[in-house]
Amino acid sequence: MKRTVAFLLSFLLMLSIFGCRLPEKNVSQTPQATPEVVLSTEQTEPATTAEQTPTLMPTETLLPTDTPQSAQETAPDGKGVINFTIVLHLEGWHDGENETSFRRHAEQLREYADLFEQYGATMSLESKEIIDGCINWNDNVLLELQQRGHAVGIHADAGGQDGATIRSIVRTLTEMRGKLLLLGINATFASGVASKANWVKACEDAEIDTVSCMVAYGLWSLDESLRPAEFEPYRSPSVGHAPYPFELEDRLTPWLAEDGSNWIIDDPAGKVLIIPSGLSLNNAYEELNGITGGKSELDAEDIETWQEILPRLVEASDSGKVNTFYAVWSFGSAVDMDLLEEWLQLIDGYVQSGNLRWSTIPEMAELYRANMQ
Ligand SMILES: [Zn+2]
């Protein structure tokens, strides 16, 4: 009897969490034409369609979002402005010990920033080994980029090991924040914190108020009754590395997490803002089609994938919400700069039409919190 009651309760809870999202999934299955704004770069007049009314001053049109996500029943109106950034993961290199490696990456970063800035694009840098590089080789490229309008946060890779605790995650985050403070940067956002331990509490304790790029491994910390049906007992964050929420259209809305045990439920009293992952930049085709096995270079298929998803994202946006989305990019191998610019031009078409707006992760967080009041 007890079991039946528990099962019914969790079923009802799941319905309340996911029930309202079903219409969005249906929307995603509707084939949609790519808008003509896509490849144009020199637009002076915003291109508009009935569904895509440009909103040039989005902050003034946003309505308060004091209703919890789970209580919202209405379908998105497809007229929201999507706050957009490129989240660059600066990890996986020996930039703390290898001066040549660090200097090459610092130059690469500056080269990318030069290109992005031509389009008014702002990056959100989630830094790991490069922090030590800046300190050891006396080149503060991170602060320089922050001063150029990009944002600097942390890619922690903390919490994914067996035996990780709130304390161990806090220690890593605090150490990294401390080093960034030495560089003149007050980092308030992090990725790579998914854990079986209460990572929401750990972030709160370490003064990280925003978490990006959360992956399925982070579902481990939930009360078992709250884990979505797709959950598997992932052995590591790299096994459970699919972005959460699983559906693309569900990744447009940030929410506040109160605790690791219930973080998938929006709680306006929560202290840690979850800004869900967008889509990979250099791995977009593979990610969207469920192809696993190593990361690939940015290629034409990835750009085509972005062409396909952008109209879906606009359709799933809502003018009454703070909408967010981002490209996730693993920094490292040199990228084809012409392809990168082609992608930027694609994004720029949507910026010019008012559907997307460049906004770093901390700017998104600030907008979300301001909009709650
Ligand atoms: Zn990582």
Summarize the model shown.
37% of the residues lie in helices and 12% in strands. It is α/β, with parallel strands linked by helices and 373 residues long. The chain folds into 2 domains: 44 residues; 291 residues, 7-stranded beta/alpha barrel (Alpha-Beta Barrel).
What do these coordinates show?
By secondary structure, the protein is an alpha/beta fold. It folds into two domains: 32-75; 82-372, 7-stranded beta/alpha barrel (Alpha-Beta Barrel). It is built from twelve helices and ten strands. The protein has helices at residues 2-18, 22-29, 58-61, 99-118, 129-136, 141-147, 166-182, 199-205, 284-288, 300-316, 337-352, 361-372, and strands spanning 82-90, 123-127, 151-155, 189-191, 210-212, 255-257, 272-275, 279-280, 323-330, 356-358. Strands 1, 2, 3, 4, 5, 6, 7, 8, 9 and 10 form a ten-stranded mixed beta sheet that branches. The relative contact order is 0.19. The model is unreliable at 4-71 (pLDDT under 50). Bound molecules: zinc ion (ZN). Residues 91, 155, 157, 192 line the site of zinc ion.
